[in-house]
Design a protein that fits this description.
This protein has one domain: Rossmann fold (3-Layer(aba) Sandwich). The chain is 41% helix and 24% strand. The protein binds S-adenosylmethionine. S-adenosylmethionine (SAM) binds next to helix 3.
């Protein structure tokens, strides 16, 4: 070490401090997700292995938010945009509560089939259904979007909980924006909206647009692996 010039020693010290900080950050984040996953598996009576979480799917911390909301509010009608492991967690939770049903809309036939198969494997058909709703062009005041075909969406029963995890952000700018303009008239008096991926710039813009257009809702940002937002009616 004596032969190493001081400026290189300082650089090495700085780099090793940065590596240690990055390792601690990864460890902390993994611990948070493990803690959340443990909570989920200790509360829900899971009968078959769950599909992988994180990545395209929700992370365990978002699952905890979903389960907490359902246990607290005991919704009857849950609508989800973007099916997957989240659909199973919601259905297990409704089973636990003893009532309610989730209808999850998915634009992609392949992921619809996968989610339906998972619902069967977990024996959750009484509580969950996946509907294929291909994206179709919709013209709104704020512009044009490709969004789930609204003709496929059941509007007969007022919606207690709306979970937004689609359409994918890659499809267009502010991809999830149409959810509120198109569905808010079907909300019950006490609807909660939960959106995943709220730390992304597009989702931040979407929440700003919604809260301006729908002042009857307040939004709360939740620090989570991918960020989450909860909207509740305040008047
Ligand atoms: C963010 S994902 C929804 C994830 C879901 N809520 C879950 O927890 O598993 C949004 C949409 O992306 C599609 N999707 C899911 N997994 C994918 C993958 N691995 N690659 C590409 N698209 C995917 C599906 O059509 C899904 O509805």
């Amino acid at each position: 070490m004596e032969d190493i010039p001081d400026n290189i020693k300082a650089l090495l010290a700085q780099q090793s401090a940065e590596i240690l900080a990055a390792q601690k950050d990864i460890g902390d984040k993994l611990y948070q997700q493990l803690e959340a996953l443990t909570s989920l598996t200790s509360i829900l009576p899971i009968r078959y292995p769950l599909p992988p979480m994180r990545g395209w799917a929700i992370s365990p911390d978002f699952g905890v938010l979903l389960v907490s909301e359902i246990l607290n509010k005991k919704p009857y009608v849950v609508v989800e945009l973007g099916s997957g492991v989240s659909t199973l967690l919601i259905a297990y939770c409704l089973e636990l509560v003893g009532h309610g049903r989730i209808v999850s809309y998915d634009h992609d036939a392949k992921y619809c089939a996968q989610s339906r198969e998972n619902i069967k494997r977990h024996n959750l058909e009484r509580f969950a259904e996946v509907v294929h709703a291909p994206l179709t062009s919709v013209q709104l005041e704020q512009g044009q979007w490709d969004w789930y075909d609204t003709a496929k969406i059941n509007k007969d029963e007022p919606l207690d909980l709306l979970v937004i995890d689609g359409p994918p952000g890659q499809i267009q700018t502010n991809s999830r924006y149409p959810a509120l303009p198109l569905l808010h008239t079907h909300f019950s008096g006490n609807t909660t909206v939960l959106m995943d991926d709220a730390a992304r710039p597009d989702e931040k813009t979407i929440v700003d647009m919604w809260t301006q257009e729908f002042p009857e809702f307040t939004s709360e940002f939740i620090t989570a692996e991918k960020g989450a937002v909860i909207l509740r009616r305040c008047r």
